[in-house]
């Protein structure tokens, strides 16, 4: 067993009540991501020990689900809705405008300074607001801000402001 | 009535008193709808404004909560209930409207008249009954599954019990109704699976009931991955105890002591509400050990998904529950033989379970009063896309599609219907010309190679491009393939590549043939994700053949949506907004100076930001097609 570091002990405490063969893996990964914003390799090892799995199994599962992150998240995540109602209202144009503004190639990437990143979001049935995106601040995952009735122009303005250091509050005000 | 009945009567009496006070409050109550969609539309700001103003004025009102009535295009929704029991729905209520709502609530009749949508209960002169609203016209006069929607507090167990909830299951326990009789009742009612396959639920429950192991699981599929479908979310957030009662009925009927509810990660509020409902039901003795004093033990547990469409497939879901990647399994063995943790299990959709309490309460004959002989009962649909009214409705099977489009207010901005995309990425794409022949039954959709699906109906206007839409679908099914079968992950990759090239203007003659080949190949995949992933493409080649050919062979997109065949040009140099357009372009493709601007087509990424700001100055046009070299045959 690898040396017990402080970081490992913290992760272990976070999932101490979870058991092998009890359907707890997703919960363990959710807790860790909620706490740290992503799931490190070290955290996966601790999960494997706690749940009686091989580290490879935990790695396999973590990478299977698109909501788990393997890298520390950016300060702000622009979660673009990839659903049908958004698509027919220039959703693709909006996506490309955001990526171009941030100098990124595809969703999932983030700016080199770690300020703004992008993510593929799935339709959650607020299609009356299409086209839309969610803005999420690191550490405040439960308070995503919905920006509805977007246009490509508005998306460019917001992406520029975020890139230049504005907060989610600032770009969504007014 | 036995001891179980007595205990339930105690619960019911308390619940009825609480509900009566809610229906006829001592002072006016203002309920602000609270659900995912309301929140996204700013309901919390509306609530905060109402709270602030009521505090400032010292107004004699209370604030409460309900779920939106299903009308999502007029959110945030607010309901006022007066001491005489009258109740009116208003929307959209913005923070600025707080004064009007408070005035109306406290007796200035007509103050919020402009925001009134309809009367939910009682009578208010001059305001129409909500059931006369054109949106709900296709619904039966009395909703079944949605009967509490917008009329109760979804977080109140009392409200659920007072409106008839848990009564049937308590009676079954009290009278020692045979589990077999419950299953028979469901089979007689002909309740079918709402996850899309519409298999008889009573018959399915018999499979698990007959399993040899005592250890067995009830599993609820609340993964609802189809983009454009959120019918399950409405039940989970709007009336969570309905699902709990359905799952309790299922546990009793199949002899299971444990159930899992697998909810997608995108529905955090649904997870919160269901977890609360489980806790409240446990505290009331409706879940847990010795339910209502009987010998029945039954526990429920929520599992939170993490963003994998294929986990909606029942076997993918089972893998995901038991600490594995959510890979679909090879059937047989079927879940009733080897399910969660390889124990016999029964998987049903949220809406399927939610129907069970009604069947148990009212019987099969009552159930048959709505629907057709082929398909009994009602089903929830969500409507989105290019329609005026986005929302959810519960309609009897057999409802004509034109009536549904009409309920949605038709196509937005006076456009015409182009296509109906139902059933999600594995569903169908049918042309407007077929709409008059369609109704909400499997037969009607299957007649055209389509599928009814599990609740999502996306209406596309004739200004949307169906070929472009196919690129979205194929990318989705490729992205969500679990990767086991080469036919599926490889086939969907090829399909995506072809569509991507076609919409980029690089279509080739052999593409159609290759797509048809991919179609038959992918169908050899193990699970239904692969098997069904070419259906939208197949529908498109069949029903939109001319549009497809125009793209692939003629390199033309009539709607000017496909980037490779469309370009942006300066249409009017005198438009002063062109300066803003030039400034907004994220790739600085608008060159030149005022009066002599031009768009560098090489740099342009077709995002449309310039068009947003200068709709007169910028226009789309078809890229001229190089004359085809016609071989001499
Ligand atoms: C890729 C894929 C995704 C699916 N997604 C869902 C889903 O989100 N919800 C659902 O109830 N069924 C879904 N199904 C259908 C399930 O496999 C299964 O048939 C259903 O849960 C059975 O419940 P029912 O009999 O109540 O319909 C999906 C199937 C496939 C192949
Ligand atoms: S398609 Fe974007 S919210 Fe539904």
Number of E-type strands of chain B: 18
Roughly what fraction of the amino acids of chain B lie in strands?
A: 5-15%
The secondary-structure element order of chain A is HHHHEHHEEEHH
Helix content of chain B: 25-40%
Which strand order do you get reading across the main beta sheet of chain B?
A: 2-1-3-4-5
Which residues of chain B form runs of ≥5 with pLDDT under 50? none
Distance between the termini of chain B: 89 Å
Q: Kindly identify the CATH topology of the largest domain in chain A.
A: Glutaredoxin
Question: Globular, elongated, flat, extended or rod-shaped: what is the shape of chain A?
Answer: elongated
The figure for the number of domains of chain A is 2
Strand order of the largest sheet of chain A: 2-1-3-4
Number of strands of chain A: 4
What share of the residues of chain A does DSSP label as strand, in percent? 5-15%
What is the class of the largest domain in chain A in the CATH system? Alpha Beta
The biggest beta sheet of chain B, please? 5 strands, mixed
Rounded mean pLDDT score of chain B: 97
């Amino acid at each position: 067993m690898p040396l017990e570091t402080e970081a490992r002990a913290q992760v272990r405490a976070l999932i101490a009540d979870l058991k092998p063969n009890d359907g707890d893996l997703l919960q363990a990964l959710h807790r860790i991501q909620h706490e740290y914003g992503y799931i490190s390799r070290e955290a996966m090892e601790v999960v494997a020990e706690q749940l009686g799995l091989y580290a490879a199994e935990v790695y396999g599962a973590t990478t299977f689900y698109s909501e788990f992150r393997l890298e520390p998240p950016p300060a702000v995540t622009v979660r673009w809705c990839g659903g049908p109602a958004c698509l027919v209202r220039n959703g693709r144009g909006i996506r490309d405008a955001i990526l171009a503004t941030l100098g990124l190639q595809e969703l999932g990437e983030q700016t080199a300074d770690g300020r703004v990143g992008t993510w593929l979001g799935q339709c959650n049935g607020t299609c009356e607001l299409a086209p839309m995106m969610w803005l999420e601040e690191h550490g405040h995952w439960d308070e995503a801000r919905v920006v509805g009735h977007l246009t490509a122009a508005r998306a460019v303005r917001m992406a520029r402001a975020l890139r230049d250091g504005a907060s989610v509050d600032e770009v969504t005000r007014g | 009535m036995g001891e179980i009945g007595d205990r339930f009567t105690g619960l019911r009496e308390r619940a009825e008193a609480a509900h009566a006070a809610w229906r006829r409050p001592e002072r006016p109550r203002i309920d602000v709808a609270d659900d995912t969609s309301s929140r996204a539309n700013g309901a919390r700001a509306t609530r905060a404004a109402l709270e602030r103003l009521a505090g400032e004025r010292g107004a004699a009102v209370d604030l409460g909560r309900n779920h939106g009535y299903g009308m999502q295009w007029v959110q945030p929704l607010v309901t006022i209930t007066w001491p005489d029991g009258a109740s009116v729905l208003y929307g959209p209520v913005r923070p600025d409207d707080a004064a009007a709502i408070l005035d109306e609530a406290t007796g200035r009749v007509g103050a919020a008249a402009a925001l009134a949508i309809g009367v939910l209960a009682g009578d208010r002169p001059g305001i129409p009954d909500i059931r006369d609203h054109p949106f709900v016209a296709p619904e039966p006069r009395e909703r079944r599954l949605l009967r509490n929607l917008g009329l109760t507090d979804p977080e109140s167990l009392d409200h659920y019990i007072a409106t008839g909830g848990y009564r049937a299951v308590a009676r079954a326990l009290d009278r020692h109704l045979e589990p077999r009789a419950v299953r028979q009742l469901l089979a007689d009612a002909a309740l079918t699976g709402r996850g899309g396959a519409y298999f008889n639920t009573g018959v399915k429950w018999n499979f698990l009931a007959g399993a040899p192991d005592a250890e067995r699981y009830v599993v609820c599929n609340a993964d609802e991955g189809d983009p454009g479908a959120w019918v399950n979310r409405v039940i989970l957030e709007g009336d969570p105890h309905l699902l709990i009662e359905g799952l309790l009925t299922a546990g009793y009927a199949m002899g299971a002591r444990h159930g899992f509810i697998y909810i997608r990660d995108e529905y955090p509020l649904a997870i919160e509400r269901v977890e609360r409902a489980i806790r409240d039901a446990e505290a009331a003795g409706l879940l847990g050990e010795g339910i209502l004093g009987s010998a029945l033990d039954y526990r429920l547990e929520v599992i939170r998904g993490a963003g994998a469409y294929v986990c909606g497939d029942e076997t993918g879901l089972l893998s995901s529950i038991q600490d594995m990647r959510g890979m679909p399994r090879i059937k047989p063995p079927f879940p009733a033989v080897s399910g969660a943790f390889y124990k016999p299990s029964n998987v049903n959709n949220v809406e399927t379970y939610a129907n069970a309490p009604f069947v148990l309460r009212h019987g099969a004959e009552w159930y048959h009063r709505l629907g057709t002989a082929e398909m009994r009962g009602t089903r929830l649909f969500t409507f989105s896309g290019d329609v005026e009214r986005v929302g959810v409705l519960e309609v009897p099977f057999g409802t004509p599609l034109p009536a549904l489009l009409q309920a949605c207010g038709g196509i937005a901005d006076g456009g015409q219907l182009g296509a109906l995309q139902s059933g999600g990425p594995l569903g169908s794409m049918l042309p407007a010309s077929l709409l008059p022949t369609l109704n909400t039954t499997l037969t009607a959709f299957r007649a055209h190679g389509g599928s009814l699906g599990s609740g999502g109906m996306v209406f596309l206007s004739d200004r949307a491009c169906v070929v472009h839409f196919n690129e979205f679908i194929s990318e989705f099914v490729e992205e969500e393939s679990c990767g086991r079968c080469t036919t599926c992950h490889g086939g969907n990759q090829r399909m995506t590549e072809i569509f991507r090239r076609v919409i980029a203007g690089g279509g080739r003659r052999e593409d159609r043939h290759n797509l048809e080949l991919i179609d038959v190949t992918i169908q050899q995949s193990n699970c239904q994700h692969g098997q069904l992933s070419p259906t939208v493409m197949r529908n498109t080649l069949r029903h939109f053949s001319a549009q497809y050919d125009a793209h692939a062979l003629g390199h033309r997109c009539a709607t000017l949506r496909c980037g490779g065949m469309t370009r942006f040009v300066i249409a009017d140099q005198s438009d002063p907004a062109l300066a803003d357009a030039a400034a907004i372009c994220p790739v600085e493709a608008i060159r030149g100076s005022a009066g002599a601007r031009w768009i560098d087509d090489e740099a342009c990424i077709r995002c449309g930001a310039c068009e947003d700001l200068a709709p007169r100055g910028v226009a789309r046009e078809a890229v001229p097609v190089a004359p085809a070299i016609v071989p001499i045959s």
